[in-house]
């Protein structure tokens, strides 16, 4: 049986091997750790809530997630140690926010490894936009 030739409306684009950037081993290891952390639904939700609201108190996160304070604090500690979020103490209360600079550096390392940094990366109905230089 003969195979049909399929015409592409746009040619496949691939950068020449000499212009592609290599991702360093430490960057690969760090990205793997970040993706392991974010593979947990609760930690990913925490990151989304913090990104949407700027800064949240632990109790706010507990209420949004429907989880106990010790459970949420455990997830926050893992995210904080990884450098994805930071804590600010005000009296007896801790407030958390995303360390956007560190997180964006990791994403740039990942997505620019193929050559040019894409302006948008889409995951189903979620889109990451890059507006840097």
TrEMBL record:
Claim: Transcription is one of the keywords in the record: yes
Residue span(s) of domain HTH arsR-type: 23-118
Keyword Transcription set for record: yes
Record-linked InterPro entries: ArsR-like_HTH, HTH_ArsR_DNA-bd_dom, Metal_resp_trans_reg, WH-like_DNA-bd_sf, WH_DNA-bd_sf
Origin: domain of life: Bacteria
UniProt keyword list: DNA-binding, Transcription, Transcription regulation
PROSITE patterns: HTH_ARSR_2
Spans annotated as Disordered: 1-21
Gene Ontology molecular function terms on file: DNA binding; DNA-binding transcription factor activity
Protein name: Putative transcriptional regulator
């Amino acid at each position: 049986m003969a195979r049909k030739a399929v015409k592409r409306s746009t040619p496949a684009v691939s950068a020449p091997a000499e212009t592609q950037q290599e991702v360093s081993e430490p960057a690969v290891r760090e990205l793997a750790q970040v993706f392991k952390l974010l593979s947990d639904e609760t930690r990913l939700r925490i990151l989304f809530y913090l990104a949407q609201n700027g800064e949240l108190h632990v109790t706010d996160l507990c209420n949004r997630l429907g989880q106990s304070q010790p459970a949420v604090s455990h997830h926050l500690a893992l995210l904080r140690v990884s450098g994805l979020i930071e804590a600010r103490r005000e009296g007896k209360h801790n407030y958390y926010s995303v360390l956007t600079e560190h997180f964006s550096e990791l994403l740039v390392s990942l997505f620019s490894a193929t050559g040019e940094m894409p302006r948008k990366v889409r995951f189903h109905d979620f889109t990451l936009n890059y507006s840097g230089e």
